[in-house]
Amino acid sequence: LPERSTNLLGVRHILLVLSGKGGVGKSTLSTELALALRHRGHRVGILDVDLCGPSIPRMLRVQDRAVHQCDSGWVPVFVGQDRAIALMSIGFLLERPDDAVVWRGPKKNALIKQFVTDVAWGDLDFLIVDTPPGTSDEHISTVEALRPYRLLGAILVTTPQ
Q1: In degrees, to the nearest 5, what angle opens at C-alpha 67 toward C-alphas 17 and 18?
Q2: CATH for 11-157, among 3.30.70.260, 3.40.50.300, 3.30.470.30, 1.10.1240.10?
Q3: Could you list the pLDDT tens digit for every one of the 161 residues in the chain?
Q4: Which helix (H) or strand (E) holds 29?
Q5: Are the C-beta atoms of 62 and 79 separated by less than 8 Å?
Q6: Residue 73 in 3-state DSSP?
Q7: Alpha-carbon separation of residue 41 from 98, 128, 151 (angstroms)
Q8: Contact, 157 vs 30, CB < 8 A?
Q9: φ/ψ (deg, to 5) at 158
Q10: pTM for this structure?
């Protein structure tokens, strides 16, 4: 079993949002699910591990924000005046929001592990993990990194055809 990070110990449930292909609305569903859970009074975070297409910062209109460091790691970006949703995305680490991420597997996998271990989420009822399209190494890295925690399940987004 991998070493557990204390940064996820305050997270009650983790949900993965997956699909076998791109363009089916994973990021939209992740965002809407987070907003709906927050509307019901839950503390919510979104971890955007779609490293080549980080769209959630733009969807939540926080693409111009920066990630800061604290003693326990990276502080996620908080959405809204009430800091209703915590968000971590590679989109915050790029020089410009539209910069392309052209990385090979090992570098992507290392960042995913770092997102799991080094983000100071605090106490959350739900952490929604928005994944990239397909069934790549990033999915395996994400599931392996989250294995020691309370993974509630996965939502598989499909198209009717």
Answers
A1: 10
A2: 3.40.50.300
A3: 345 567 888 899 999 998 887 888 899 999 999 999 999 999 999 999 988 778 899 999 998 888 888 888 899 999 977 888 999 998 888 777 666 676 677 888 888 888 888 999 999 999 999 988 877 777 778 888 888 776 778 899 987 66
A4: helix 26-39
A5: yes
A6: strand
A7: 33, 15, 21
A8: no
A9: -130, 175
A10: 0.87
**Exposure of 67 by Cβ count < 10 A (0-12 exposed, 13-18 middle, 19+ buried)?**
middle
Q: Where are the beta strands (DSSP E) in 9-150?
A: 11-18, 44-48, 68-70, 73-75, 77-79, 85-89, 124-130
Q: What are the structural domain ranges in the chain? A: 11-157
